[in-house]
Amino acid sequence: MTDVERVGVLGAGTMGHGIAQVAAMAGHPVRLFDPGEGAAQAGLRRIRANLDKGVELGKVEAHVREAALERLTVATSAAEAVGDASLVIEAAPERMELKRELLQAVEREVAPDTLLATNTSSLSVDGIAEGLEDPGRVLGLHFFNPVHIMALVEVVHGPRTRPEGTDRGVAFARGLGKEPIVVRDTPGFASSRLGVALGLEAIRMVEEEVASPADIDRAMTLGYRHPMGPLRLTDLVGLDVRLGIAEYLHRTLDGETGSERFRPPDLLREMVARGDLGKKTGQGFYDWETDG
Ligand code: NAD
């Protein structure tokens, strides 16, 4: 059972609006703030559209939609959004300095026991907590896109995160109907590290002509019941995005050890250099114009 009541969500983009939606649907009063011109209102419109669609498809009851919308308000400042929140979740752009400054400003406005969570997908949670008076109150709550559909939440604890903060994060995620997993603050957490490892090995197998991309994907969809093969997934995520993550994991996890685990394969670099970035450019491991 969660002890979290009011939630402040900072950033109303792809992730922020989704997090605000699921928190409001679970019964939390939510204040949403975004400094971008019209961004918070746009986030609210996306929530309304999601809920309308849910009702239309029979997945959300009309009274749940109404109650969720009543619990949601747009704040005109970060201070207003977080004032009396017991949990603040930041979903601002993926920049360390920005997130640090944001949480430092938030800390000045909230009660001593307010939990501060970051939805970062790759940055160090402990790094984001740097400079706070109480870094022990910071944890990662890593949601997946689209938030209202994806069940997983990675609850990321840094070396200084208080254990009760991690427990509160787990209880909160469960209360949203999500499936939390607890992960130590390490590069790529659990999901990206495993997902990228599989993707890179699949690309090496294409390089070595082990099988065609479609057959390599079928090895995982049919042989291991993955909903999607690693190469098709790489096309959907974007080869440039995956290359960026692989470079980061190679730098941080392989580091000085000489390990090649996360070294981006030459083929991945060549495809990115050619502009074959996957679905968004029409060409990746699949030709999305014809057989995607
Ligand atoms: P986005 O660009 O869609 O939204 C970010 C929003 O933050 C924008 O609306 C922007 O105006 C706002 N913003 C800028 N400065 C701010 C500030 N100081 N305070 C509050 N809001 C501010 O980005 P996104 O995809 O929603 O990503 C947000 C975070 O979630 C990032 O850390 C990202 O790595 C992480 N994440 C993204 C995904 C994904 O699939 N998009 C998945 C998991 C985690």
Descriptors:
292 residues; 8 strands; 2 domains; 47% helix; binds nicotinamide-adenine-dinucleotide; N-(1-d-carboxylethyl)-l-norvaline Dehydrogenase, domain 2; alpha/beta; 12 helices; Rossmann fold; globular; eight-stranded mixed beta sheet
The Cα radius of gyration reads: 20 Å
Strand percentage: 5-15%
Named CATH architecture of the largest domain: 3-Layer(aba) Sandwich
Overall outline: globular
Strand order of the largest sheet: 3-2-1-4-5-6-7-8
CATH superfamily of the largest domain: NAD(P)-binding Rossmann-like Domain
Number of domains: 2
- Give the number of helices: 12
Q: Could you report the average pLDDT, rounded to the nearest whole number?
A: 96
CATH class of the largest domain: Alpha Beta
Question: How helical, in percent, are the residues?
Answer: 40-55%
- Ends apart, CA distance between termini: 44 Å
Low-confidence region ranges? none
Topology-level CATH name of the largest domain: Rossmann fold
Element order: H for helix, E for strand: EHEHHEHEHEHEEHEHHHHH
**Largest sheet report:** 8 strands, mixed
Bound heterogens, unique: nicotinamide-adenine-dinucleotide
Query: Count the strands?
Result: 8
